[in-house]
């Protein structure tokens, strides 16, 4: 009799422990978002990348023209050096080296300008995305929304059913397209006031 009471007590204790764990684990509503997928497929990031490439190409064309002119001037100076003498060649070389340094500084300035402009825009897009995910989590009643991705990940494994990336991405892109259409209208209205 004592053995059966002890076994019954152990069974009840084990059952109550397992039951408590199930309740605690199921008491939280969690999900995760694949942040690397968001960064690749969110329209705001795609637009920023496209704008950056266009601006980089525009700036690059201006620099390329100056580099080509410098190369031509180097070639012309080499041809003239024999006729005008070593002193002229030395002065011309200093002048061309100065122009080369200026082009290097111009290139660095262009890179910094692009980094400043698009870094700030990228940070703004990331901030909007994080705010949206936070608001989404509140609206849908999530206790936690984790992030996973290529670089940093707070999830090593999760069932596919907890992945809300597609839903978030669809809504982010829908909202972005809506605000992108409104911005030109605001710009046009501002231009009319002037």
Automatic annotation (TrEMBL):
Domain of life: Bacteria
Pfam short name (any one): OmpH
GO biological process, one term: protein stabilization
Signal sequence, start to end: 1-18
GO MF, any single term: unfolded protein binding
Keywords: Signal
Biased composition (Basic and acidic residues): 179-194
Keyword Phosphoprotein: no
Region listing for Disordered, in residue ranges: 175-194
Keyword tRNA processing attributed: no
Gene Ontology CC, one term: cytosol
Protein family according to the UniProt entry: Belongs to the Skp family.
Protein name: Membrane protein
Organism, as annotated: Flavobacterium subsaxonicum WB 4.1-42 = DSM 21790
